[in-house]
Amino acid sequence: MSYNLLKGKKGIIFGALDERSIAWRTALRCHEEGAEIVLSNAPVAMRMGEINKLAAIVNAPVIACDVSSNEDVSNLISKTMEHFGGGVDFILHSIGMSINVRKGKHYTEIDYGFNAKSLDISAMSLHRVLATAMKMDAINEWGSVVALSYIAAQRVFPDYNEMADAKALLESVSRSFGYHYAVKKHVRVNTISQSPVRTTAGSGVKGFDGFMDYAEKMSPLGNASSDDCANYCVMMFSDLTRMVTMQNLFHDGGFSFTGVTEAVINATAPSAP
Question: Between the CA of residue 189 and those of 108, 150, 176, 241, what are the distances in Å?
């Protein structure tokens, strides 16, 4: 059902790879709610994924962007402003990459060169996008920026590896840059800490099925789906949340504030003799 919450708004959505991507589902919902969008992803991800299929559905141009490159980010924002004839009202940062995870390196033995690249792409890319947008005056007054995070930024999930550090840095950038952009132009910047979702990227984490099952048992409402997250993003992009900024917003079915559930107790209790 559409409520026209984003009618007349324009935005950039980073990170749509395939139909399982949160960014993909969010692009569909933004389109349904009346928004015009530009899609972007890294060149290698564009070759691996199906972003052109999504572009046809939502009638959006696709602009390649390596978010670790200042030049690429500037080019993306410049071309987006040319396409729209002005600034944007929202941006979704759905970007994450860990070379150490791909290489199977344990957290205690990470390669620091790989780590620097992971932090740059997964977290500092948000700073780069925001700094470039501010310099080019690319986000309209009362615009909204959302970056996707995970509770491993606050709690230990051993197999989440260096991505936990990346998410913690991402949330810090959101708060710090959110202050400056709010003062300068009432632009709000938030992160959404989402339930684990079986996306292409998420499934690459060791023990991911265990993550999913445990979170489902620990969440009073169950895990939030990609479509649920897309709905939440739409709300954050809309004018209904104009005074929300610099927040890390848990969207996880209650997982983040639950100590234990009967389901977990029952699953771990010793069997009767």
Answer: 32, 16, 9, 11
CATH number for the domain including 50? Answer: 3.40.50.720
Comparing CA positions, the residue from 251, 226, 241 lying closest to residue 149 is: 251
Decide if 273 is inside a domain. Answer: no
pLDDT in tens, 2-54: 899 999 999 999 999 999 999 999 999 999 999 999 999 999 888 888 999 99
Per DSSP, 152 falls in state: G
Residue 4 domain flag: no
Does 232 participate in catalysis according to the annotation? Answer: no
The active-site residue out of 3, 107, 112, 160 is 160
Q: Indicate the pTM of the whole model.
A: 0.95
Choice among 107, 112, 150, 181 that is catalytic? 150
Residue-number span of the structural domain to which 160 is assigned: 10-268
2: in domain: no
Number of domains in the chain: 1
User: Quick check: is 150 catalytic?
Assistant: yes
